[in-house]
Amino acid sequence: MSRKGGAIYRNPALLLGLALLAIARLAPGQQDATEDRVKAAYLFNFAKLAEWPGSALPDGPSPLVIGVRGGDEEFLGVLRAVVAGKTVGTHVLVVRSVTSAEDMKSCQIVFFRVSEKKNVAAAIEVLTHGVLVVGEDENFLRLGGMVNLVRDHGSVRFEVNPEALDRSQIHFSSKILALAKAGYGPSNTPASTPPVEGTRQVVRSSEPEYPALAERMKLTGTVQVQAVVKPDGTVKEVKILGGHPLLAAALVSAVMQWKYQGASKETEELVKFTFGPR
After folding, report:
1. pLDDT digits (tens, 9 = 90+) for 44-102
2. Which CATH class is domain 7-177?
């Protein structure tokens, strides 16, 4: 397990900081400079909030290295300014420009600038588990990337590839993942990916049916909902947080039939499900 355990996830200030970043708007006329600062701050937050396997970031005074592949000196300067003097637990944050496989393997985070998109797939193949791979190209997740920073209606948001994160053995809490931009649907995958539930354990569940109309339309995407769960574990109602209405309706119908573990009071549980072609 990571040296951070779960304590950071309970820090509301950190969660709020990431949530604010997720909706940070780019000032007209200053998009490039502002976007660099926002992306640098995202990388800093990922460093604080990720949970690495002990073999990738052992306890002790070792540095937590953020490598940048393809970054110009201006961006490297912005990122270094953001993390200057910062630590994560016992680890000092260090920023490096990386090019070789050995350079990247020595990092905990590697950020691929869009200029490196032709080299992404080959570079990711050589990385072992325990390296968080972040990019900024629209096809980055489909090439095996884990987290992607994207422009969305004047904001910088992030999207995730849950399967790649699982393989890396790097974990984020479900609360952090719930902040991700909906809409990533891997190509050439099974009809769906497993749901991400909230804090209460699900004791009985069923996957949503992929609507026939959505299949004919080749409609894909991620839906996020919030289930209001009674103390006895039954679902009282389900609220749609994001996703295509047709896919959302299918997920709502399924989650209404779920049964959660009992609790002393009513709770709200997040569920995220990705629909894809059969």
Report:
1. 989 988 888 888 888 888 899 999 998 788 999 999 999 999 999 899 999 999 999 88
2. alpha beta
* C-alpha distance from residue 125 to each of 101, 107, 122, 130, 141 (Å): 10, 15, 5, 13, 13
* Residue 216 near residue 189 (C-beta atoms within 8 A): no
How many angstroms separate the most distant Cα atoms in the chain? 57
Model confidence pLDDT, tens digit, residues 220-262: 888 888 999 999 999 999 999 888 888 889 999 999 999 888 8
pTM of the model: 0.60
Query: What is the rounded CA–CA span in Å between residue 112 and residue 98?
Result: 10
Tokens 């490096």 correspond to 96
CATH superfamily of 192-275: TonB (3.30.2420.10)
What lies within 8 Å, CB to CB, of 119 at 6+ separation is: 69, 112
Between strands 202-204 and 259-260, the pairing is antiparallel
